[in-house]
Amino acid sequence: MLNKTIYFLILIMGLTTAIGCSDDDSPAAQKSLTLSINKLEDVGANFIYENWLIVDGSPVAAGTFSVDSNGVLSETKFLMPAKTLDSATEYVLTIEPNPDPDPTPSKVHVLGGDFVSDNAEVSIDHSKALGTNFSTAAGNYILATPTDEDTTNENSGLWWLDPNPSTTNLFPSPGLTLPTLPEGWEYEGWVVIDGVPVSTGKFTSVSGADSTKLFSGTTSGPQFPGEDFLMNAPQGLTFPLDLSGKKVVISVEPKPDTSPDPSTIKPLEGTVPPNATDHLLYTMLNKDIGSENFGSVSRE
Fold first, then answer.
1. What was the pLDDT predicted at 11?
2. Helix intervals (H) in the chain
3. Which residues in 261-298 are b (16+ Cβ under 10 Å) and which e?
4. Chain-wide mean pLDDT for the chain?
5. In which band, very low, low, confident or very high, does the pLDDT at 293 lie, cut at 50, 70 and 90?
6. d(CA 92, CA 46)
7. pLDDT at position 8, please?
8. What's the pLDDT score for residue 104?
9. Would you call 150 exposed, middle or buried from its count of C-beta atoms within 10 A (0-12, 13-18, 19+)?
10. pLDDT category, 199, cuts 50, 70, 90?
11. Do 51 and 88 meet the contact criterion of CB atoms below 8 Å apart?
12. Which end of the chain is more exposed for a tag (fewer CB within 10 A), N or C?
């Protein structure tokens, strides 16, 4: 009787072990999602990057990681059930709150790529990321200070507008041509003054005022992105100043934005000419960021 009892105990233990160790949990049934991605930024302690796999049209979470100030990823290999990883057709990278109470992807899709065999090249212009390579982006600006009555400091303001009337428009027109961004992203203008990037404000429309006029005067400015650098100068800078020779930038920023500096996604850049003339139209350069390589992911 004792031997029979022991036999049944051993049988039950064996079944329990077999049930507890499912095919998906065994090492042979797992594979690694391996990242080889560059040009990512530190998003701070309150946010984190998250991998997503698109399986049968739905997102499946595939691990989180942070990025330090040197662009080094905290983790590059993520174990996943082999069945899930092999079934994935696309990869998407998002920025999420940390901690994140929502099990679904945020609206801030940074990169995306299609799996071809066991690899996916990732880019910002993937349909599930920013969805554009910014090849059509163009920018023109003028120097002017429309927010005060002083006419002696006109080179201390920069506005993305075209002041020249045309046969169809007698008023200033937008100086920027930019694709519409998906939810979770916005543009930001910058002037780099003595190595210090100073924001001119964030915006989603090229034909409306941007988010702030922190440095402008007390008079209303034009309904276009731009800024006068007349007051509230950041530490180390003195306003008003001559923007001749300064670098100007249009960047693409996640929303919310955790960094005081421009992101690595800068579709337009330019340099104000030395001895620039106010109210003269100047042109920015398209930086062809769609051709930049952000890396790849693989399943191994």
1. 43
2. 2-20, 82-87
3. ebbbbbbbbbebeeebeeeeebebebbebbeeebbbbb
4. 90
5. confident
6. 20
7. 45
8. 96
9. exposed
10. very high
11. no
12. N
Residue 146 near residue 209 (C-beta atoms within 8 A): no
Rounded to the nearest 10°, the torsion over CA 166, 170, 172, 176 is -40
Q: What is the pLDDT of residue 6?
A: 46
Q: Please answer whether residues 49 and 43 qualify as being in contact, where contact means their C-beta atoms are separated by less than 8 angstroms.
A: yes
User: 3-class DSSP state for residue 299?
Assistant: strand
pLDDT tens-place string over residues 89-139: 999 999 999 999 999 999 999 999 999 999 999 999 999 999 999 999 999
149: buried, middle or exposed (CB in 10 Å: 19+, 13-18, 0-12)? exposed
Range 255-275 average pLDDT = 93
Query: What is the helix, strand, coil percentage profile of the chain, to 5?
Result: 10, 35, 50
Q: At CA 52, angle to CA 75 and CA 55, rounded to 5? A: 135
Angular region, 26: left φ>0, alpha ψ -120 to 50, beta rest: beta
User: Do 163 and 156 contact (CB within 8 A), yes or no?
Assistant: no
Which residue intervals of 22-166 are DSSP H helices? 82-87
Closest CA to 159 of 179, 182, 175, 180: 175
- Measured CA to CA, the distance from residue 195 to residue 206 in angstroms comes to 26
Contact 76, 38 (CB under 8 A): no
